[in-house]
Amino acid sequence: MALAYTPGLKRKEMYIVRKTRRLPIQGEVLVKEGDKVDHNTILATTQAPGRVETVNAAERLLLVPDPNTHSVELKKYMFKKEGDPVKKGEQIALKKELFGLFKRTITSPIDGKLEYISNMSGQIILREPPIKIDLDSYIPGTIVKILSKEGAIIECVGAFIQGIFGLGGETHGELMKAVNSPDEVLTAEHVSHECKGKILIGGSLATEAAIRKAMEVGAKGIVVGGIEESVLTKILGFRVGVAITGHEDIPLTLIVTEGFSKMSISDKTFQLLTKSEGQLACLNGATQIRAGVIRPEIIIPRDDVPTSKAIDKGEEQLSKGMESGLPIRIIREPYFGALGHVVSLPIELQIVETESKVRILEAKLDDGRKVIVPRANVELIEE
Amino acid sequence: MSENIKVILATDCGSTTSKARFFRKVGKEYRFIAAGEAPTTVEAPYENVTLGVSNAIREVEELTGHKILGSKGIISPSKRDNEGVDVYVTTSSAGGGLQMMVTGVMTNMTAESANRAALGAGAIVMDVIAVDDGRQPWDEIERIRFLRPDMILSSGGTDGGTVSHIVKIAEFIRTADPHPRLGTEFKLPIVYSGNKVARPEIKKLLGEKFALTITDNLRPKIEIENTEPARNAIHELFMEHVMSHAPGYDKLMKWTPIPIMPTPAGEGRMFRTYAEGNNVNLVGVGLGGATTNIYSIYDEKFVRSVSANLGMSYSICNVLKETGIKNIIRWLTFKVNETDVLNRLYNKMIRPTTIPQTLEELMIEHAVAREALRLGFQHHKSLARPLVGYFKAGELVLGVQTKVEGISRYATYIDMLKVDVLGGTGGLLSQGPRRVQSMIILMDGFQVEGTTLLFQDSVFMMPHLGVLSTVNPKIALEIFEKDCLVKLGTCIAPREITDQVEEGQKIGTVTLTMPNGETIEEPLIHVTLKRIPLEESAMAKARINPERGFDVGAGSGRVLEKQVHGGVVGIILDARGRPLRLPENDDERRRKLTEWFTELQAYPGYP
Description:
Number of helices of chain A: 5
Number of domains of chain B: 3
Oligomer: heterodimer
């Protein structure tokens, strides 16, 4: 399992960020290769099919199916045919009984068009007008590729930091240092009206009151080291069961960089964020741990740096695997959160406290301790 | 054909890890030789499943010195003693496995049969849509469009029965116009297995827009369920329309002429082969990181259930969400802070590939496993139930309603007293540091009753052997029995029919005649466990004499005599009571758990 290790979260000061932006269904692309775009430029647009409404017409008109064909003569009573536009309240079917003495009618429940009339099921399907969907560019940068009828790929240079878990979707705002050190807890006292529209840089933990106040004053996002599970549940109003997030109905985006419980945001992440205070940050809290891992992200675009200046050693490292001397973070008890570097990678399996025989590594922690940990419990720090 | 097969390679492309298993003929026997594992590479940035498979195979090459990979893929057939393989087979659940939607007319009849058919084919069923499911049509149409399944199984009506309701659902599908998850430019496969009279209408509605396949009705008569044709069609379409569009599978499919099988289908096939070969009622479980698959082969009926969000890593917090933190903590022998356990579980969820290093962490995961199995089995039993809605001897068969944790369900036909064998596979069960841990987790999760043989998969190779059995069942079964099947032992647990019982009371006697002729007589003392060693290959003659009000399979207070298997754990006399009730008082509960774990030597330090 030489290649079986956790790649770790990215924390790059100067990185070429490429974002693929796709419409959910095909549409029209409004930009061309080489165009410079802002984070809110509309790249592509489309019309999603409108909401569907069904009417059980056979039942409403009291139509009886033919025992041989199983069908009803619904089309005979329709005023409209498939594809015709309809207005809400407009009569679309009529059945006269007893020489016109009794009438059974159907009116359209929506504005839209009549999509389908079924003599077999006796139902009418109507559809509301299409819904316009605009796709913005999310990050400022240059269009490097057009995806025909679907969207585009944008490229920019900037800092790129991945979190471990997030809530809420894409947002933008100026970075604002809210605490003085990576181990300080972000409390409601740190949050004021000046935080409106800002992305707050927190420390080791965000309290429930701090998150609620940030929402109240209109902050766009919070980046913090840790969060308590109980706070998460209270903020959302439900317990997260599977880590697929990004569509929560909350007014800000929350990104946790280290994990659950009080955990200092890493020094380097804190420094990277605070030295960019006042700059635009693009955030996305969307997290998906299962198949096709998506981690939440913070992008701080730099329009003054050409792409040739961005260096990425991390990708090279990924292909090489784990080696002695590499910086690591331990991601499980009993040394959870500790930073250090790899000392050796013994080939033989070793027995740990649980009595499991596992592939381990020897690490020297930043506090000087030498420890043995399963390789599965460390992640490489990509810088 | 067996004569020509000397070397076999089987892989499984799991959602997280690709696992290679290497087998070869040693003398006259087929044996497991080595295993290799590597991360699955079906997702970005790799988007080529064969990279992960090759890495796993390379590990086998390193361990065995046997060359398997050549410039064009797998070298086949084997050439010298140390090059090439004669058979290469693979299963796959990468990228989320086979994800399906099923439709039917009535929730408890045709839709339920369709659900069983899709699950039996190894699918994860994302939703079951039926005319009477209480949802609004627009809601159902949105759901079909939004979920983007890999395939839809559409059923409904007995042959000659309703047509209009089937057509109505087909109209919903057509209106929703769902596109497949993989390979968006291809037509979504739909299997129609409903009323044969409705076929012309179905062809008219769905034939052009979708890749439509029509099979025999899975419910031709209300009292008959025939899921085999639908299951076979699903397997064929899985290869042709789903796998062929997943990244790298076009290449993988060229490496083997044998159809790729969904992982759970391989696993289920092996459980089924074992149960049918030994003529036993069997319950099997695959406890994975994301899902829990349970299989029952009971009175010749095969049912599979998948609890898509009950698992030990990705889905660990969903187990917590469904069962509650108190139900997890109740299995722990040490005092814990609820917040601390919650944070630990959430940290496991966001870093799912980590493993416990400390004993406390291991015991917390084992506590979650018991709850995942308990909930998964509840779900399974709701599917493993008699068909309802038909007349028998002039009476309408409606099924028996029962309440499980306040939820009304149809009663299952599975009687735990009649389950002969319980088997487990999956990372946590296969890799437990002590085998007795798997045994007690399975006993607690399923609450076995009577006499039950428990086994586990040695190093997770049941899916591999399942797909191998499609090529050569004899070899697959031989390897299964020699190298995959680890007999844990037999659990003897009386069912309580009375509530007039107190802790410490004798509820029966077990007399074991051991292979060496020695006789061991042990009383069954209420709320205790007793472990009696009996080696894996051995059997003992058991005479179980329960007190009145207790049943081990022969009736209340009636003696049962039978041969019982030994195992790496041995025989466990489980007189803790069925249903198992843990003491309400925390100190008392911890004391009892410690006592049981000590008797079983389940964990280091116990004693």
